[in-house]
Amino acid sequence: MSVRIAVVSAGLSQPSSTRLLADQLAAATTAAVGDATLHEVGGGPEVVVDVVELRDHAHALADHLLTGFASGELAEAIGRVARADALIVVTPVFSASYSGLFKTFFDVLEPETLAGTPVLLAATAGTARHSLVLEHALRPLFAYLRAVTVPTAVFAATEDFGDSTLAARVHRAAGELAAMVVGRGGGRLGERRSAALPGPDEEFGEVVPFEALLRRSHEQ
């Protein structure tokens, strides 16, 4: 059995602190899955890490927004994310939120693609003043996408790299993501959970047009 982890990095430069944090989180999660399954009979699952560097797909993403179709390497990247058992997503902070490139990638995914999928949230910026972006921007986005975010999100300002406190947060978040994957026996969580999740019509019931509501109020 294998566990597939997709790492989505939205860094714009090469090298980038965003990719550096993404690699640290991927390595820590791989180790945490191994630790969590150390005593399993026959050994633990193989961890396969697929890195999606959004910088390489920027033009294709713009084309996708205009045409509605993904092609070539972008289609392959979307497929890797759709098949993943868990995600690690890392974005730089621009204008107090996630980057446009990061948002565009998740805009073009089909609805329910990430339903039930465990996601580790992370962000980088030049200063710690942007750390709340994890809670006021990223977590609501993935809640809307019906993903399951781990409790610990990781923010790294420039001065945090090489600091022991960042390493502690990385290992804590990675452990939480590994526990979610291993605790559910691996496999595509979204496929198992999506059947139990109500669709929009079931969740909200029949939608009554606003004009009909107004007529009812006048008739009463």
Structure description:
Keywords: Flavoprotein, FMN, Oxidoreductase. Its EC number is 1.5.1.-. With 220 residues, the chain is of the alpha/beta class. The protein is 47% helix and 19% strand. Helix 1 packs across helix 6 (164-183). It is globular.
Based on helices, strands and strand pairing, what is the structural class? alpha/beta
Taking all Cα atoms into account, the compactness measure Rg is 19 Å
Helix content: 40-55%
Helix segment tally: 9
Please state roughly what percent of the residues sit in beta strands, choosing from under 5%, 5-15%, 15-25%, 25-35%, 35-45% or over 45%.
Answer: 15-25%
Determine the mean pLDDT: 87
H/E series: EHEHHEEHEHEEHHHH
Runs with pLDDT <50, length 5+?
187-204
Distance between the termini: 62 Å
Quick take:
The chain is an alpha/beta fold.
Q: Any chance you could write out the topology, listing elements then pairs?
A:
Elements: E1 2-9, H1 17-36, E2 46-53, H2 58-67, H3 72-83, E3 86-94, E4 97-98, H4 100-107, E5 118-125, H5 133-144, E6 148-149, E7 154-157, H6 164-183, H7 189-194, H8 200-204, H9 210-219
Parallel strand pairs: 1-2, 1-3, 3-5, 5-6, 5-7
Antiparallel strand pairs: 3-4
Helix pairs in contact: 1-6
Main traits of this protein?
single chain; seven-stranded mixed β-sheet; alpha/beta; 220 residues
